[in-house]
């Protein structure tokens, strides 16, 4: 179906997302933080990115801003995952197509993914 880049520093969540999304027909590449995510996005040009917000080296906010300022990557839809639930924190996620608060339901994520990719 779609090539999805999962960017998260949490190994277990990254792995679980990979298995779940692959079982639902998607091809998954993984990155461990925003720096790695930007590099992989440039290499593979994914159809969609699912990214955590809080990560070492480069957080999801910064990665999202860098994606939006890179002509070859600016149109990739990004779904942000966050443990933050304050309205001001969520407003920082400008440019994301959707956000999910952790912990989230994997089926809810799949519905969002499938809404943006075929």
The end-to-end span amounts to 6 Å
CATH architecture: 3-Layer(aba) Sandwich
Output the helix-strand order: EHEHEHEHEH
Strand residue content:
15-25%
Basic shape: globular
Total discrete domains:
1
Q: Estimate the helix proportion, in percent.
A: 40-55%
Rg is 13 Å
Q: Could you give the count of β-strands?
A: 5
- CATH fold label: Rossmann fold
CATH superfamily: Response regulator
Q: In CATH's first tier, which class applies?
A: Alpha Beta
State the secondary-structure class: alpha/beta
Number of helices: 5
Topology:
Layout: E1 3-7, H1 11-23, E2 27-31, H2 34-44, E3 48-52, H3 60-68, E4 78-82, H4 87-91, E5 98-101, H5 106-116
Parallel strand pairs: 1-2, 1-3, 3-4, 4-5
What report would you give on this structure?
- It is a single chain.
- The chain has 118 residues and is of the alpha/beta class.
- It has one domain (3-116): Rossmann fold (3-Layer(aba) Sandwich), CATH 3.40.50.
- It is 42% helix and 20% strand.
- The chain has five helices and five strands.
- Strands 2-1-3-4-5 form a five-stranded parallel sheet.
- Strand 3, helix 3 (60-68) and strand 4 (78-82) form a beta-alpha-beta unit.
- Helix 2 runs parallel beside helix 3 (60-68).
- The protein is globular, with a radius of gyration of 13 Å.
- 29% of the residues are buried.
């Amino acid at each position: 179906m779609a090539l999805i880049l999962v960017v998260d520093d949490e190994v277990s969540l990254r792995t679980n997302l990979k298995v779940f999304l692959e079982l639902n027909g998607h091809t998954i590449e993984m990155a461990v933080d925003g720096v790695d995510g930007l590099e992989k996005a440039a290499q593979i040009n994914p159809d969609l990115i699912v990214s955590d917000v809080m990560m070492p080296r480069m957080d999801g906010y910064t990665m999202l801003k860098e994606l939006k300022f890179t002509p070859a990557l600016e149109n990739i839809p990004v779904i942000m995952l966050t443990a933050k639930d304050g309205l001001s924190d969520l407003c920082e996620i400008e440019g994301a197509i959707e956000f999910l608060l952790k912990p989230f339901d994997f089926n809810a994520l799949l519905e969002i993914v499938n809404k943006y990719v075929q």
